[in-house]
Amino acid sequence: MRPMNPYQQYMYSYPHKTAYGALSGVSLVDYADRLADSSLYFHIPFCQSKCGYCNLFSVMGQEYDLMEQYIDAMERHAGQISPILPDSVEFSDLTLGGGTPLLLSVPQLERVFRIARDQLGFRPEGRQVAVETSPAQTTEEKLVLLKEHGVSRISMGVQSFFQDELTRLNRSHTVEQVKDAMLLIKRADFTCMNLDLIYGIPGQTEESLLCSVKQALSYDPEEIFLYPLYIKKDTYLSSRAVMRQEDAYRMYGAARRYLRERGYVPYSMRRFVREGDAGGLTGCGFENTLSIGCGGRTYIDELHFCMPYGVRQSQCRQILASYMGEEDYLAVRHGYILSGEERRRRYVIKNILFACGLSIGDYREHFKTDPRQEFPILEEWIRQGYARSDGEGIRLTEEGFCLSDYLGPMLISDEVREKMQHSEISPMLEG
Fold it and tell me: How far apart are CA 56 and CA 156, in angstroms?
């Protein structure tokens, strides 16, 4: 029986950043030797305007001097990290996220890539370099720059091909800007183009959603992400009408079937990869990420940390000012140190909610125990038809995948849940 409220929380990572708290006596120096084969992430927290649903860390406005000062801070940040990195460290990939990275000018973008190359030793050859963009900020000049610096994956938040739906989301771009940006991106010929769409928009119908999906597919993207609309505290949409969850769930099912029928393979509830393209079916759960900037999270084994989090512009600007005024970027002051149990939970969450599924043998190899004994809820999901097991692994069924935002939160520990509930920030974050 389908639950009444299938959209509880997006389990983007674990533990959720709202469970983070003050740390003392922790230094990045003590963890630097564990950064081998890590991802590198630069957070660009600037946006032209705030989307109606967004509670990610971002600062509105295109203030050139402020962005220059921020890049200066990132350069100091990377400059303090560089001397502590072992010679063996080679970052496996690079992502510029945000915010809207392409809000930066061409010279500013050039500086960011130079910091990654000259101070942190990143080389794009044979590695994925990904950049997020928005239709209004996608220009031919900036795309040429991205190609020159080895960008292989570009991701654009389209959200809808209907102007009235974009208006309800308080998106600043127009449908015409989407189409113009798509032509430029296609002409630039990146290895992977991803398009994001949103469902559950007030006033949206199954027909309009499928029409948006159809128009997105007309550009032959390698990937499509379908995101449910979460209405979150301190956002523009928080006091406005909300679509019923059962209607959003029905619309998602129709869009999922439509994509599958057209050769797009679901690798999770949200991600669809064009058949024949590299999808990344391998398991995960131990991957590390080093983040540069204000807003990104760093994961180094059991240590997870970031700057304190805010949504309101006054909060974000205060946190940004604190970051730019920091003297010791190696001091870890806000985060979470995972216990052995929490690391096992993270491993289960980071595998069971994806197409790779949870390998029982790999779990035993890493943790010397059986996940079915430690997490009896997995057997319950099998009995309910949300998951299946072939003896070697456990994978979600089609229904289970569609209910990922309902099932995933069941794996949150009591300790983490309590910390999230006492946070001032809503736990339903998209990032």
Answer: 16
